[in-house]
Amino acid sequence: MSIVSTKSYAFAIQTIKIYKVLSEERKEFVLSKQLLRSGTSIAAQIREAEHAQSSADFLHKMNIALKEANETEYWISLLKDTGFINQDEYSTINRDCSEVLRLLISIVKTTKSNLIKAKNA
Questions:
Q1: What CATH code is carried by the domain that includes residue 93?
Q2: Is the CB of residue 8 less than 8 Å from the CB of residue 43?
Q3: End-to-end CA distance of the chain
Q4: Residues of the chain whose pLDDT is less than 50?
């Protein structure tokens, strides 16, 4: 299992836990459901990419994971700015989301570069 796969899976678990708190204790259902969907989708897309049919398919799935991570970062910020999560909760989950996001950006850039090199070779 790769670093991004491991970290995104751990992030999915973290997302599920914060969703439970938001829905059960804080009675927030709309934003938390969006966070749950995008936050767990990241690891699912990465898992699919691990068995991609081609480099282009791998890149496509990683791009989807990158978009989901970016969307998740948005929902996290929105939950903080509307008072549903406090600064400590925000700092922890946002740090982890940003780490996965940075890894995905790197993977996408490297894969694109490698595909261009292979095409021009």
A1: 1.20.1440.60
A2: yes
A3: 30
A4: none
